[in-house]
Amino acid sequence: MDYxxxxxxxxxxxxxxxxxxxxxxxxxxxxxxEEGEKLPSKRKLAEYLAVSQTTIEFAYSQLVAEGFISSEAxxxxxxxxxxxxxxxxxxxxxxxxxISDTDHVMIDFSPGKIDTDSFPFTTWRKFTKExxxxxxxxxxxxxxxxxxxxxxxxxxxYLYQSRGVKCKPEQIILGxxxxxxxxxxxxxxGKEAVYGIENPGYPLTHHLFLDDRKKSLPISVDMDGxxxxxxxxxxxxxxxxxxxxxxxTGAVLSATRRSQLLSWAYQQENRYIIEDDYDSEFRYTxxxxxxxxxxxxxxxxxxLSTFSKSLMPSLRIAYAVxxxxxxxxxxxxxxxxxxxxxxxxxxxxxxxxxxxxxxKHLNKMRKIYKRKLEMVTKTxxxxxxxxxxxxxxxxxxxxxxxxxxxxEEELVLLAKNSxxxxxxxxxxxxxxxxxxxxxxxxxxxxGIDVLEIPSxxxxxxNAWDIKKHRERN
Length: 473
Prior knowledge:
14% strand; 16 strands; alpha/beta; 8-stranded mixed β-sheet
């Protein structure tokens, strides 16, 4: 079976993956899909139904969890016998399968990992103890809806000094992660907004936008960043970009493209740019890249960032700098909201920044990540020209291009079978784009000990059966 003829209502309130899950489940129960029958691959079904592979993944995962289908490695998904199910309840609420952290992974090249060994536990513990005491019992109450002023003040000062962002503390809103702030921004920009998103791009934006194709338009990316000339041909009114270190390609938006993008935003009153500056603290070559917000002369850039890379992902503190016109609307529409970041965490971070420890920590981590990057590039150079690197100017991940006859999915699976987690570039792209002829792998190095990098990369190359250049002679 290569296709499933289902009609998904993209305008409906029910998520696409839940619609698909219900359609397949009902077809199995009604006998329209027989026991033992193989379901289409995630890629084929995604292409046929014109939805993202994530939609298929969520639907299949739930069906596996409930026993309607089984997953067989390297073979696919197969319909199970209903007699083996203890109970079939058609109206159970849909819950997606949890991914276990205990999966058999010995080496994790995830781009989201940080160096936890270098975290300043002693200093953080000290400020936490100082903050949690009876003198600060007011911190148990709800604070300002945008976040406590003292932290917003320190963030404002830090952004101006490090990124050239021009803002007042009053323009900053705090949230427990980018995924909490982005929906607020989307609501703020209104129902008429149409979003341009980088392709390939950050998975969160795909989850937020791609279920409504009328509201999201994938814009291609090359090694100079998002292709603005392509954006100009669309009806997009908002462009989401990661200009300082494009995720996942690692491209830096060129000066020409920056000017073009700002010019695009200025051409119509309702146009905005969402600048996600997720890992700009870590740049290793050349001069620091200025933020788009700092170059903006007409208040059209919404600046977005987080402390996930600079401190820890679990801190769950992200922030946005809204243009003055939008912050006024925000206060009118969301003044009843409570800040989603615990006040104690806010004040611990404020103390950490005020004392100068945040700047010291960033300087320390730049050196550590730079050393890791140098070790990565030095090790991979031994496999050149079969393996080449791009996107190494900044951040905690690079992009590998593998000159091989193997497919990207095959490389990811070979690594997985050897206990190594890597991600293919196609995983970050919409189904509409053929990302590249040669397979590309997103390789994070932040969470791997510097001394283990050579052996980890060598193990990955062994899994792919790639020899060092001197061994091929």
